[in-house]
Amino acid sequence: MAKLYPIGIQNFEKIRKEDYLYIDKTALVYKLVKTGSYYFLSRPRRFGKSLLISTLEAYFQGKKELFQGLAMESLEQDWTEYPVLHLDLNTEKYDTPESLDKILNDALTYWESLYGTRPTEVSIPLRFKGIVQRACEKSGQRVAILIDEYDKPMLQAIDNEVLQDKYRNTLKAFYSVLKTMDGYIKFALLTGVTKFGKVSVFSDLNNLNDISMDDQYVELCGITEKEIHHYLKEEIGQLAECQQMSVEQANRELKERYDGYHFTENSVGLYNPFSLLNTFYKMKFGNYWFETGTPSYLVKLLKRDRYDLQRLTHDEATSDMLNSIDSASKNPLPVIYQSGYLTIKGYDKRFDVYHLGFPNREVEEGFIKYLLPFYANVDDGQSAFHITRFVREIEQGDCEAFLRRLQSFFSDTPYELVRDLELHYQNVLFIVYKLLGFYVQAEYHTSNGRIDMVLKTEQYIYVMEFKFDGTAEEALKQIEEKGYATPFLNSPQQLIQIGVNFSSKTRNIDSWKVV
Q1: The whole model's pTM is what?
Q2: pLDDT of residue 332
Q3: Is 192 helix (H, G, I), strand (E, B) or coil?
Q4: b/e per residue 439-458 (b: at least 16 CB within 10 A)
Q5: Cβ(446)–Cβ(467) under 8 Å?
Q6: 336, exposed or middle or buried, with CB in 10 Å at 0-12, 13-18, 19+?
Q7: Are 39 and 190 in contact (CB under 8 A)?
Q8: pLDDT reported for residue 195
Q9: In angstroms, what CA-CA distances link 97 with 100, 134, 172, 247, 410?
Q10: Which ranges of the chain have pLDDT less than 70?
């Protein structure tokens, strides 16, 4: 019988009872429960956090039958039922001060129907505190608290300081119960995409063990290559057949598209579970993870903080930076990393510095394509059209059409960008370079206000120099003086040299010269 893939299914009980594919993570769940009490885990969206929470819920509810055939069955000898308070903050749109209060009130009211209330518990934290105490006293067992997407309100209000302050204060008081009611709590896990630190919701929760960059729990969410070959070996063969490629090619394509997430230095690479399951369900490769959520909040941060997009391919950060987001900080890097758009590519132990980059092709291609309409004069739905035309013009040697299209990207550049015009110019050119690089060989270098780009197709090699407030002639002269074209003089392809100038006066490309 064909495998059932749990796409969009995050309930452990449903997966087990209805015989969906389950990658056994219960040995790590057992270790988590037996070696500590308070945890925090940050992972990108659709990476298995909700399923982990649901697995823990089934465990603490004593549902032994759901763990038959899994590692947990032989590990746990003493099944006990505990009261479980499971809060999912993913189910609300947070755009008003009342949005958060409503969802917290709804959860508290339900728990109060089970464990009772007292008239003096008039605030949200007091009600939560009372529920934890009574749940423990009534059941005779300490409470398991599971909070999924704890940061959703903060993330949705990331560009609204007033609203974020309101949510921060509410959540800070609510989560403080985890510390004050320690004697009544057996276990607590908070999951989310990001970790807001410093003067934020975590400032009082110093009893939480952050396992986001902990080697021993790195495989808790996500799928390893070993797990793919254990659980999906036959399906890889079917995928290869459907895509008319060898098994080796299918493995390589899966790895290039979906592997590459590293949450600690030198750790095993993790595949994105959502994209992987969709690929096997449809027997077709696609950008499944990226298409389910657009990183609009990240673009807001990149533009607000005047981020140089070229840094995306080789930025650096310390562990302190990656581990916590300071709401007042003007550095978007921690949010981009924690959201899964960048990952750890290397580590310098001496200076405790991580080297970051895109995890895989799905993320890189999806993110760069998504950025185009936010930086260039391109309609949302027209990005794919422009990319296709760009590639064809380059491949056909139609420099004039390519340069006119590039010029159109800068038309209507807002006047407020004047002070950051050079950065804007560089960012648009970087996006164009990356987009072309998915289809043709491309190289890109920047230095002291100048940019050079090399594009290689079957028939042509383009050596391009871009100036800012210079002239197209100066750009061409630079190619000659620096010998940029020299390595390609004996190539079989036709060599085309292009000098381009961007004018701050017109806020656009004002001239180019082709030889």
Answers
A1: 0.92
A2: 87
A3: strand
A4: bbebebeeeeebbbbbbbbe
A5: no
A6: buried
A7: yes
A8: 77
A9: 7, 29, 15, 53, 39
A10: 1, 197-204, 325-329, 414-418, 448-449
